Amino acid sequence: MSNTVKHEQDPGLRVPSLSSPEMRRILASSFLGSAIEFYDFILYATAASLVFNKIFFTNLTPGVAIFASFATLAVGYLARPLGGIVFGHFGDKIGRKGVLITSMAMMGGASTLIGLLPPTAQVGMLAPIALIILRVVQGLAVGGEWGGAMLMALEHAPKERRGFAASFANMGGPAGAVLATLAVSAVSLLPNEQFLAWGWRIPFILSIALVGIGLVIRLKVTESPLFLSLEQKAEERKTPIREVLTRYPKSVVRGTLVGMSSYTVQGLMTVWAISFVVDDLGMDRTSVLNIKAIGAALTVVGIWFAARYSDKYGRRPVMMVGILAGALLALPIMFMLELGQLWIFAIALFIANGIIQASIFGPFGAFTAELFPTRIRYTGASLVYQLSSTVGAGFTPMIVAGLVLVAGGNLWLVGVVWAATFIIAALAMRGMKEGKDADLEAQDI
């Protein structure tokens, strides 16, 4: 069998099949790049809850210190849409490959510097200020990473395998979460004094080695054939973000509402629920973290299957399965949490992440990419993805905490609002076209 297939309508432009060495390198670059970026991003979240309030905000009361620590975490989420716009602009103007190399280098450099930051006790306010600046850099970098990593795989792949190819960037996210959890878990075995003094720094500093491996692979990847084909057309291209917002506003809004459903699951079950079952229900912290790691691994498997089925049946049908399941199971999952049993919590988490979130998230890369033409695809897909993640994962824990207070400690109101989020996503999906069989080159004419 030939290692290349003809690319859409252009008989002279050929792209590698998924079995070719070039395509395997592209898929590995997409997966590893996202895994490394999200390893660094999620590593920060873990350290924000365990370390930073004791290292960088020591001049504050404990309650204010942990709030300040989580505020720096939120800064990274707020920077992600801006990163998607900035990196998307250059990715649509000068190419995907160079921008991806830059985003990976930025993330690795920022994470390594966080691991080397002196504590507030040594340098005063410079320490938390530097921490915030580096967190912004992390947010900008991860904001640009996903769109480029996903597009490099999708735009190299044959049409009938686009969904599966694009999912490698999505699989990298939970894989990075597993890696970050295991890294922190390993150094947490140190005595508490040593862990706070230097142990927590090791996972951050190790990110430079991971980035080195990722860059070696990424540098060998060729530029997107669709982008190269577009470059050959002599036409003036507008500012990508302006064209996205003026010509495709409905795609941005509807795509974001659909994507929020997946990220609401993430923010609810892997952030808020972890705190709820440990602090409010008294479950063993280590056991809960182990369940969370297994849930992330199951999400990778679920994404793999959902993406493959999306190439066969379409993006919308597969994603709609996850959305409808989320709407129907929202209240039962909340009831399962209230039972306070570790094994029931595990089942609830595995259903939420391994089935509901994975069914939506698996085809989501191809789904967003197929909404926009090549000239603005990086910017458009990145904007939809980053808005979904910022609003969904970034604000859900805070909103859920407020809903629990309003309901007097019961979770029924959380279930109702969660179900409503999925219903809104289903309504947004109804007005969108299926992109599985779309000719991406024809969109550029």
UniProtKB/TrEMBL annotation:
It is a multi-pass membrane protein. InterPro entries: MFS, MFS_dom, MFS_trans_sf, Sugar_transporter_CS. One of its GO terms (molecular function) is transmembrane transporter activity. GO terms for cellular component: plasma membrane. It comes from the Bacteria. The keyword Glycoprotein does not apply. The chain crosses the membrane at residues 26-52, 64-87, 99-117, 123-143, 164-189, 195-217, 257-277, 289-306, 318-337, 343-372, 384-405, 411-429. It is found in: Cell membrane. The keyword Transcription does not apply. Residues 26-433 form the Major facilitator superfamily (MFS) profile domain. Keywords: Cell membrane, Membrane, Transmembrane, Transmembrane helix, Transport. Coiled coil: none annotated. This is MFS transporter.
